[in-house]
Amino acid sequence: MTQEEFEQYQQQLAEEKLERDANFAQKKAERATVRSHFREKYRLPKSELDDTQIQAAADDVELPTELAKMIAEDNQEEEHKQSVLGQITNIQNVDMDQLKEKAQSTLEDLKQTAEKCDVM
């Protein structure tokens, strides 16, 4: 191996190492992004290490698409659980069909009362 070939080989090794290091930093930043998302979701304390890893990747980090889809689904479920009907379905021993029938019958009773009223 000549001196020139050796220098090219060393340069190639250095470039490959830089590329591997960049990919590794990107993966670390993606993992830190996932951890920070779950820390926000569950209101856990933030980690300085995660913040520095995300900043080291120059903020080019996004959640993986599959994880983003899962998070969107979770958010929809949470919104449903926070709605009135979602809260009612969480209460045990509540029959939704019976509750709906009672609400409809009450509404019909109100309509009949309103029809009988002379002022209306």
Account of the protein in words:
This protein has 120 residues and is mostly helical. The chain has 5 helices and no strands. It has helices spanning 3-41, 48-56, 65-82, 84-90, 96-116. Helix 3 (65-82) packs across helix 4. The mean pLDDT is 80.
Which structural traits does this protein have?
mainly alpha; 120 residues; 78% helix; Complexin-3a isoform X1
The proportion of residues in beta strands is under 5%
Distance between the termini: 104 Å
* Low-pLDDT residue spans: none
Q: What value does the average pLDDT take?
A: 80
Secondary structure tally, helices: 5
Structural class: mainly alpha
Number of strands: 0
What is the N-to-C succession of helices and strands? HHHHH
Q: Which radius of gyration do the C-alpha atoms yield?
A: 30 Å
Morphology: rod-shaped
Q: Provide the helix percentage.
A: over 70%
Largest sheet: none
Organism: Danio rerio (Zebrafish)
Protein name: Complexin-3a isoform X1
